[in-house]
Write a structure and sequence with these properties.
The protein has 591 residues and is α+β, with helices and mostly antiparallel strands. The protein folds into 3 domains: 171 residues, no CATH class; 279 residues, 3-Layer(aba) Sandwich (Rossmann fold), CATH 3.40.50; 96 residues, no CATH class. It contains 13 helices and 25 strands. The strands form 6 sheets. Strands 2, 3, 5, 6, 7, 8, 9 and 11 form an 8-stranded antiparallel beta sheet that branches. The protein has an 8-stranded mixed beta sheet with strand order 12-13-15-14-18-19-24-25. α5 crosses α9. The protein is globular and about 80 Å long. The N terminus is likely disordered.
Length: 591
Amino acid sequence: MMFTMNRLSAMPAAALLTAALASAIPGCAEQGAESTAPEAPLTFAISVPEDAAGGPLDGRLILILAADTDPEPRFQVNAGIDAPQVFGVDVDSLAPGGTAIIDASVFGFPRANLAEVPPGEYSVQAVLHRYETFELASGHTVKLPMDRGEGQQWRRAPGNLYSTPRRIRVDPADTGPIRLVLDQTVPPIEEPEDTKYVRHVRIQSDLLTEFWGRPMHLGAHVLLPEGFDEHPEARYPLMIFHGHFPSDFGGFRTEPPDPDLECEYSERFRMECYNRVVQQEAYDFYRTWVSEDFPRFIVIEVQHANPYYDDSYAVNSANLGPYGDAITYELIPYIEEQFRGIGEGWARFLYGGSTGGWEALAVQVFYPEEYNGTFAACPDPIDFRAYTLVNIYDDPNAYYVDGPFKRIERPVHRNWLGEVDQTLAEYNHLELVLGTRNRSGDQFDIWEAVYSPQGEDGYPMRLWDKRTGEIDHTVAEHWRENYDLRHILERDWETLGPKLEGKIHIYVGDMDNWYLNNAVYLMEDFLESTTDPYYAGEVDYGDRFEHCWNGDHENGNHISRLRYNTMYLPKILNRIDTTAPPAADLRSWRY
């Protein structure tokens, strides 16, 4: 998951606003992003410069009104209690010099429309998130934002246009437009350079190129062991660290912490100078990595950003294409060939947290003999009866629980004390403002893009109505049979069980911010009841730990999250020693 976790000290009063928002817009088509708002004379007229590159532009035009001036409004967008006001409209073939209008008919968040925005002074900015046209192998034509090296982040995607922030008084009762010009362009992102220990690879995937109808690539950051060049005879086990888009191999630093580093406060961990802690941990990992007795492995972080998200969830998908096969059968063999990997399933291991936790478990389940163990920390929902707080098979509505006289709105984010700062409806409504047809680049949209069938228009089918929360149980059944990991394990245990014995390890805090522990409970119920064979793995919980606890009972999240590449090594080494086939190479990499 890509959410930002913050500890808050008080519970907000946001439910009434969101309920009113939902009831105000029940009949609106998603792609039109229109609302049944009260009329307001004020409009925003947002124009593209005459000299804008690229000809007519397609994309999502996003307008932000922020109470604070720092950072820029585009970097303040979130669904929490401090959320700025955001509006969004699709634009098609907007010519250089052309203008798009945002008025009271345009759907917004947190206020549903421009007429509801309180008069006041705001820092105002507009961003055009550019789309490209794809001719899919399915025969559909879709418009989506191609990743441009930033990890599918609309705020900083190279080539996106944005306006210089302005402090403006906004009053919906005013007449005449407020004019903004998209006078800035996000610059390209520099590629990371190879070093002695970290190499970068990028290949064109034949499987993905065929699906998307244009050249598509996979990449990885490869951490090489100490002595790699001095021991050409060595062949190495491979550890795949799954997670969100990495700009470079993270958490590895060959120099001590910068003594002149300016302290940065971590709101998530309530810690001063957390950036110094991060640098120290990265340097400590380097010293461990090169130490004399440390086992020699290859570690990779996969780059698989795509037109929907910053990664693919590492599985095959009707909407994203065969990323599971492309990573397992194209990218990993290429890396093993280039960097002398052992190249056999007994010598490959998976781990990761959050999105990476789901990926690590799913890849092990879908490719049971290609990998020899998974360590899945705080995984995204692995049983869709607990899709955060929604049972997608039985609940009629995702956003609300209804009684005969009462309606409760479902939360989606809490702190370790259970204090709530976001609801499920709020988060999804913000996603809809940022992009229709699953193009927000955010969490619930990517789950639908990965798990749902492809719709008649070529875009993912919605699990639920994005405005109202009404669940489509036909889509839910597709999710169950193809991506509900607990269901798949139970359904196929007769054949999967013998291949997964001893390979599954799952860790989660029992106060996970996104309620991900609930699905783990259900998974554990099944795993512990299996007897033919017994799964012989591990499910562990951290008492009062938030997202993303990963099995470390000795340290807080602020430390353990920085130690993925070493914390599971004892278990991996034990599994290699006990499961490697006869005549397997257990020595060349132990120099």
